[in-house]
Amino acid sequence: MITLKIASATDVPRIREIAFKTWPNTYGEILSQEQLNYMLDKFYEPALLEESIRNGHIFTMAYEDDFCLGYAGYQHNYQDKNATRLNKLYLLPEAQGKGMGKILIDTVVAAAKEKGADVVTLNVNRFNKAASFYKKMGFEIVAEAYIELDHGYLMEDFIMEKKVD
């Protein structure tokens, strides 16, 4: 049975653990090992995750029999707009393809609707296989973004949106 739980700062080690287990599988063919390590260290620094939770970012953790299989991280009122932003959605490899991603997307969309958002928005690496998953979930590509990081690294993303009904 799948249960969902809103994370607190005490869940940061588990969030990091899942990220460090899923990123090599997700991005291993897209990014160099150096860029992968850099981005994990930058985006999953414990103090940064704890601060984001304190600042209202929500991590919904998905559990099966007390074992966390993944999470969705999101925030409401993104850029002071009537939008909810899905910042992160990662599932352990063994949990992928079993409907857990859909459960998490549905949870984020329901939370967005409850907050009165018009859309759920996200960025996804244009070469990430997850882009097709998001399309199946009703997201549409609305723009492309090229985001420069330190050390000459570049994020090449699709910006996708799903209307909240």
Q: Which parts are unreliable, with pLDDT below 50 for 5 consecutive residues or more?
A: none
What is the strand arrangement across the widest sheet? 1-2-3-4-5-7-6
Kindly give the count of domains.
Answer: 1
Biggest β-sheet: count, sense, barrel? Answer: 7 strands, mixed
Tell me the span between the first and last alpha carbons: 28 Å
What is the beta-strand fraction? 25-35%
**Rg from Cα:** 15 Å
Tell me the CATH topology.
Aminopeptidase
Question: How many strand units?
Answer: 7
**Alpha plus pi helix count:** 5
Q: Residue share in helices?
A: 25-40%
- What would the principal axes of the Cα set say about the shape? globular
CATH class: Alpha Beta
> SSE order in H/E notation?
EHHHEEEHEHEE
CATH architectural label: 3-Layer(aba) Sandwich
CATH homologous superfamily classification: Gcn5-related N-acetyltransferase (GNAT)
Structural class of the helix and strand makeup? alpha+beta
Instruction: Provide mean pLDDT, rounded.
Output: 93
Protein name: GNAT family N-acetyltransferase
Keywords: Acyltransferase, Transferase
Domain N-acetyltransferase: 2-165
GO molecular function: acyltransferase activity, transferring groups other than amino-acyl groups
Structure, described:
With 165 residues, this protein is of the alpha+beta class. The chain has one domain: 3-Layer(aba) Sandwich (Aminopeptidase), CATH 3.40.630.30. The chain contains 5 helices and 7 strands. Strands 1-2-3-4-5-7-6 form a 7-stranded mixed sheet, sandwiched between helices. It is globular. It starts with a strand and ends with a strand. The relative contact order is 0.16.
